[in-house]
Amino acid sequence: MKASKFSDAQKAFILKQEVDGIPVAEICHRAGISQATYFNWKKKYDGLLPTEMKRLKQLEDENGKLRKLVAGRRTGYFSSAPQLPTVGLNKPSSTLRLDPTFSRSRNHIHLENR
User: For a designed S-S bond to 10, which of 3, 6, 37, 81 qualifies (C-beta 3.0 to 4.6 A apart)?
Assistant: First the structure.
């Protein structure tokens, strides 16, 4: 993701100008940003001080790292699960079926050639 060319203090100053009565179009023109960027910032940072903006970014970064860690553990769990036998599965005449003679708590898979 591209880093912003505006600091947190600059974003706070730009957002505060609307409260002072300056139209949004003029604020965006002076700052060199689009109105979409202005309203995205307003949605995310409205009412926050620059120090609070910095803390919000730190929390978002930490949350992203934790999400990646959890996702990695999930994929690690599934990759270490036992694999089904692959003997004869490439043959077109082979089919897999569950053996009905065993109890339901056991999933026995048998390879049946026809």
Answer: 6
CA angle 101, 105, 108 (to 5 degrees): 50
pTM: 0.52
pLDDT at 114 over 50: no
Provide the pLDDT confidence category of residue 98 given band limits of 50, 70 and 90. Answer: low
Cβ 12 vs Cβ 45: under 8 Å: yes
- Say if CB 14 and CB 35 are below 8 A apart: no
SS3 state of residue 95: strand
- Write down the residue that tokens 């959890």 correspond to: 70
- d(Cα 35, Cα 41) in Å, to the nearest integer? 10
